[in-house]
Amino acid sequence: MLHFRGLWVGSGKISSKLKRFLRIQLGLSIRLLMDLPRKLSTIYARGHQTPANSDLSLRRRLPRVLVVDDNPNTMSLMQDLLSSRGYDVVAFPDAAQAEIEILRHPPDLVLSDVVMPGKSGYELCRELKENPATRLIPFVLITGLSEREDRVRGIEAGADDFLNKPIFPEELFARVKSLIKLKEFTDELETAESILCTLGLSVESRDPYTEGHCERLAENASNLGRYLRLEEDEITALRRGGYLHDLGKIAVPDDILKKGANLTPEEWAVMKRHPITGETICRPLKSLRLVLPIIRSHHEHFNGSGYPDALQGRNIPVLARVLQVVDVYDALRTARPYKPALSHEQAAITMRDEGRAGLWDEELVTEFFSMLEKQRQVA
Ligand SMILES: [Fe+2]
Fold first, then answer.
1. Ligand 1 centroid to 245 CA: how many Å?
2. Does 338 map to a domain?
3. Domains in the chain: how many in total?
4. What is the per-residue pLDDT across 87-125, written as a single tens digit (0 to 9) for each?
5. What distance in Å separates the CA atoms of residue 47 and residue 243, rounded to the nearest whole number?
6. H-helix or E-strand containing 157?
7. Could you tell me the distance, in angstroms and rounded to a whole number, from the CA of residue 297 to the centre of ligand 1?
């Protein structure tokens, strides 16, 4: 099961901006781009279930605004005003009901009163901002309070903006319009990320012997990151790295990719370019900043014998070393045309030997097997 948020691509249109981005970054033809949504949907649909609350199509739809206010007059005023400007508006009298709806059908914007019976607007805001599935939904607190401390409290809860009561329609429209625009931009970036990750899966699909490799890597690498108590954004980077680390193989011809072993020096040179190609493709997306070192350095060796930069020891970025340990284990445990799959015990012996020989970070190898051992005890 995929945990990467938004890792799906619908069957509808992809925007011209996104097509331009992909054309420039990947050198893909217009024809392929036109066909991309269908192809990617197929790749995704093969092994994954789309979340029930996902909007499967990227077709144009009215921006959805969710209003929470216990005052029925304010609630219906907002509903009327926003509907008159073409927004799809849903309104709820309390935070608990609103939250259920937000999780079920995420809106593009939340406008919330602060003081309400039950959960306050601050609490609702904080909970949504702490949840990875809802944290990117812009949240506006509507308040009659103008005290500085109340605004500070709202900012601390993660509110994106404030509106004062009484509400002036023009101010409401301006805020809503600009935040919806921001949300569209965020959605587009997420879609670009999703497409890149799905392309990562499409690279995997070219090699029948690596099926499920990206998903296992994403799962195990993020688990190891959590086990090592890394920061949340580093754990997210590890998960994405699972899908994106070999994206550069998109530029490696099939006959080289599927050969696996006994590559000629020329073929090997082509293969060794994939970390840099992958990094180049992903570099324009700032949200993938922490993933870039993983992509570039996942074939470095602790003793400096790896590629592409022959980095040594701790000069190899830690996230790349983490993903590498998980990657090596997965490769050892999987059968390939030129080698059988090793058992867990055989893989552990091999990796410890190779760690001692200078290939892998021995400390991380130890941590990885200790994590697997704990997982086995719990299971
Ligand atoms: Fe690789």
1. 6
2. yes
3. 3
4. 999 999 999 999 999 999 999 999 999 988 899 999 999
5. 14
6. helix 148-157
7. 9
